[in-house]
Amino acid sequence: MKKNLPDIKTFAFMNLGIFLLAAGIYFFKTPNGFATGGVSGISIILKNIFGWSPAICMLIINVILLIFGVIVLGKECGGLTIYCSLAFSLLTWIFEKLVPLSSPLTNFPLLELVYAVLLTGIGSAIIFKCKASSGGTDIVALVLKKYTSMNVGTALLCSDFLIAAFTFIKWNGDGSIAFNPETGLFTMLGLFAKVFVVDDIIDSINMCKSFTIITTKPDEITQYIMRDIRHGVTTYGAKGAYTGADKTVIITVCRRAEAIKLRRRVLAIDPEAFIIITKTSEIMGKGFRDNTN
Predict the structure, then answer these.
(1) Looking at 147-287, which runs of residues are DSSP E strands?
(2) Cα dihedral 250, 255, 256, 258 sign
(3) This prediction's pTM
(4) Is residue 136 a contact partner of residue 65, using CB atoms and an 8 Å limit?
(5) What is the CA radius of gyration of the chain?
(6) Please, which pLDDT band fits residue 235 given cuts at 50, 70 and 90?
(7) CB of 148 within 8 A of CB of 158?
C-alpha cells in the first residue's frame, strides 16, 4: 500500500493543477478576452471571431498537439499529458454548462487579470512538477526545454507571444475589425507576469535546503541523517583557524520539512556546531532528481 502512495499523490496534485488552470481560464481569462497564449488563448480568439465553444476548440487542438507530444516527449509524459489535456477540456466544458458567463465577474479588469495569472500559473506549475502538461503550447514549451537551454517560462513566452498579440485586434459583429489597445495591453501584461509566476512556483515546489555543518561530534549527526532522514552525507576533516581544534565538515541536502528537524537535532547534539543553510531548487542525484532528466 505504501508503495502506491507516490502515484496517488501525483494524481491528486495533477487534478488540483487541472482545476486551478480551468477555473482561471474560464472565470477570468475568457470573459475578459485575456488570450495570454496557449491553446486556451487560441480558443478565446476563435470564440471572439466565430462564437465557438472554447472547450470544444481546446479539445480539438489539444488532440492534434498531443500526438506530436507523445512522439517527441515519450510515452510516459504523453500518457500523463493526455489525461491532463482531456480532463482540462472536460472541466472547462462542465463550467460552461453549469456556470454560464456572458460577462466578466467584476468591473475591475486588473483584479481579474491578477486572478487569471495566479490561478493558471500555479495550476501549470503543479502540472509541470508532475512531469506532465495540460496540452497545447505547454507541449511545445516542454519540447523546447528538452532540446534547448531555455527554462519553462522562456519557452512559454516564445510559444505564446504571437497568440497574445492578436488581442490587440477586436472583431465586431459585422465582420469588421478595430484596434483594441486595452485588452491587448492587459493580455501582454498577463503574459509576462505568467512567465515569472510559473518559474517561481516551480522553484518553490522544488525547494530544498543544503546544509554545511561544522562540528566536533560528526558520528551522531551523520547517523541521524542517514538513519532517520535517509539522505546521503559527505564529510571531510577541517581545522579551526582561530582555535586550531580539529573539526569535521558535514554536507547534506534535504527537503524543507526535513530541514527543520535536522537543524533542531544538530543543535541538540552539538550546541556549538556551526551550521550554514542555503536554499536550492536544483538537486540531482539519488533521492532527488534523476540525473538523466
Answers:
(1) 169-171, 177-179, 208-215, 234-239, 246-255, 274-280
(2) negative
(3) 0.69
(4) yes
(5) 24
(6) very high
(7) no
Domain containing 67 equals: 2-205
**Is residue 7 located within the same domain as residue 117?**
yes
Residues for the chain: how many in total? 293
Task: Write the burial class of residue 237 (CB in 10 Å: 0-12 exposed, 13-18 middle, 19+ buried).
Answer: exposed
Residues 166, 276 share a domain? no
Tell me which of 112-126, 130-144, 199-213 is least confident.
130-144
Whether 49 and 98 share a structural domain: yes
Closest CA to 162 of 187, 183, 193: 187
Q: 56 with 15: CB under 8 angstroms?
A: no
Which residue stretches of 74-180 are H helix?
75-98, 109-129, 137-147, 152-165
- Predicted confidence band of residue 28 (pLDDT cuts 50, 70, 90): very high
Domain count, the chain: 2
